[in-house]
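Input.
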Amino acid sequence: MSDHAVNTPVHAARAHGHRAPRAEFYVYFAVILLGAFPVAFVSWIVSTIRHRRLPKRGPFASAWFDAKAITPLIFRA
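Output.
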């Protein structure tokens, strides 16, 4: 008889664990952050002019959020 509980998704997730980010991750993060900042800055200015009030997040926070969301997607692919 075989044990079907050995390779369940819960056990597989625990076996891989959380990997610490490496230097390559930080390089990609920095490049994406530098690319996202000008776009976020222009978007922030347009939003400020259009709505006549400051957005909740500033341009750097917005670029940081975008880089934080995009970089892990590169390594999952």
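The radius of gyration is 20 Å.
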